[in-house]
Design brief:
Length: about 475
């Protein structure tokens, strides 16, 4: 019987970790540069925390978790629900004010950790219960629990690159369904090792942990993204699949080109999402022997909505693949993408999820079922009475060889209503707006940027490597454009 078929028989009976040890307890779950953990090892570690967690956590209580070690997120994404709590993975690198705002938003009073980190010392212990959790002795007889299909397993915050982060409540069913639908499309094998170098407190990183725990697959942990280390792992055959955002992909491709190394056959693909990945980057990767699979997803759908299949050799340029099975997509009158299906979660504070999730993204589907993204609904610019899509302009500008990164946005202007502003990252000196606009002949002239801001350093990013437009606009505001 196929391993994934076996898993479906266990969904109601056991927790994720218990399913794994019943099927193959000696299988490697996690690898690091100096250690490996089997599912049996994880089971013992998880169970050594459960008794102490049960003395701290009330049933269905949201509990924040802080760590700088990705492996610990894999442990506590199991242990907290097994102690009847709701797991809230937190960003250890954020500010105390940002963290406080988010915890207050979801009425979370308790933060657990295993080792003190800088952020712990900065938090107000009158505002939150800061609890250093310790292991107790391991026993198979320790009583544990597991949430039912529609119960809340975890609360994640959206990335908030252009808006205020929202708390999303993920049910066991949301998570498990997404993992099975992803597996049906990507066909990850027992021999594959997925590199996790993205933050585990966002959907892109945490979903790799979820897939491992639910499907019994293996992942390799790098606590901090480093392009040199990533390339080393690829070349040495340590990993076969990687998830990256486009800015990470750019750095990895630059490093591979410098190394002049041959990509081993064992390496399967890079799953690239979080922002639009340019066809220029995909083409660069193909020339180096790397398959890049564009994907589109959200925290609200437990990651993937549409993903290119590794078996799809005919993906049209500009598309992000086809929607996963059981995901329905339609569009409103403004071409905003609406999503429905079992992976759609609800926001904190709402009793029911909407049947159709308003993604805020604009797009369309072609006759063959491929999905295309054409920008954000809330980022459209109206200049001189014309509607302008920033993504359309950015996709042309990024083709210019000396431009590393590009962002288009509007600022208020007495004459135009909104003025189109271009911010780029480039090492080239003496770049003129006139020269850039000459490269945009495919576009109508009213879409041309009217102001250029050049940064020699990379544009500001959030903790998952996406360009942070809020930070960028604040930075540019100081330039008095």
């Amino acid at each position: 019987m196929d391993r994934n078929t076996k898993y479906k028989n266990y969904i109601i009976m056991n927790s994720w970790i218990e399913k794994n040890i019943q099927i193959d307890n000696d299988r490697i779950a996690i690898k690091t540069f100096n250690k490996s953990y089997t599912f049996n090892d994880l089971h013992k570690i998880i169970y050594s925390f459960i008794d102490n967690l049960k003395t701290i956590i009330k049933p269905n209580e949201a509990v924040g978790f802080l760590s700088e070690d990705i492996c610990e997120y894999a442990i506590f994404t199991n242990a907290v629900p097994m102690a009847k709590g709701i797991f809230v993975p937190l960003n250890p690198y954020t500010t105390k004010d940002e963290l406080s705002k988010r915890l207050i938003q979801i009425n979370c009073k308790k933060i657990i950790f295993t080792k003190k980190i800088n952020l712990i010392d900065k938090l107000n212990n009158k505002e939150f219960d800061l609890i250093q959790i310790k292991k107790s002795s391991y026993s198979k007889n320790i009583k544990s629990f597991w949430p039912k299909k529609n119960d809340i397993h975890s609360i994640l915050f959206t990335s908030g690159t252009s808006r205020i982060p929202k708390p999303v409540q993920l049910s066991v069913n949301n998570i498990e369904t997404n993992c099975y639908m992803s597996q049906k499309n990507l066909k990850v094998s027992n021999e594959d090792i997925w590199l996790l170098c993205m933050p585990p407190f966002h959907a892109g990183g945490l979903s790799i942990i979820f897939r491992s725990m639910i499907l019994g697959t293996s992942f390799y942990v790098e606590n901090n993204f480093n392009s040199e280390k990533v390339v080393e792992l690829i070349i040495n055959g340590k990993v076969s699949i990687i998830s990256l955002v486009p800015t990470m992909l750019l750095k990895v491709l630059d490093r591979i080109e410098l190394s002049k190394q041959i990509i081993p056959d064992k390496f399967k693909f890079i799953l690239c999402g979080g922002a639009a990945v340019s066809e220029h980057l995909i083409s660069r990767a193909e020339k180096l022997g790397i398959k890049v699979l564009p994907t589109y997803g959200m925290t609200e759908t437990c990651s993937q909505i549409a993903t290119t299949s590794p078996e799809d050799h005919y993906r049209p340029k500009g598309s992000v693949g086809k929607s996963l099975s059981n995901i329905d997509i339609k569009f409103d009158k403004n071409n905003q993408i609406l999503v429905s299906g079992p992976t759609v979660a609800r926001y904190f504070g709402t009793k029911r999820r909407k049947k159709w999730l308003e993604t805020g993204d604009l797009g369309y589907i072609d006759k063959s079922g491929y999905l295309y993204l054409i920008g954000r609904f809330d980022e459209q610019i109206i200049s001189g009475g014309e509607n302008i899509n920033p993504t359309e302009i950015e996709s042309e500008i990024i083709k210019i060889p000396y431009i590393d990164e590009a962002v288009i946005f509007g600022i208020k202007d007495n004459y135009w209503g909104e003025k189109v502003v271009l911010a780029i990252s480039s090492k080239k000196k003496n770049i003129s707006l006139e020269h850039i606009n000459k490269k945009l002949k495919k576009l109508d002239s009213y879409k041309y940027p009217k102001k250029l801001i050049v940064f020699s350093d990379p544009l500001p990013k959030n903790n998952i490597g996406k360009i942070d437009k809020n930070k960028l606009k604040t930075k540019i505001a100081k330039c008095k454009v």
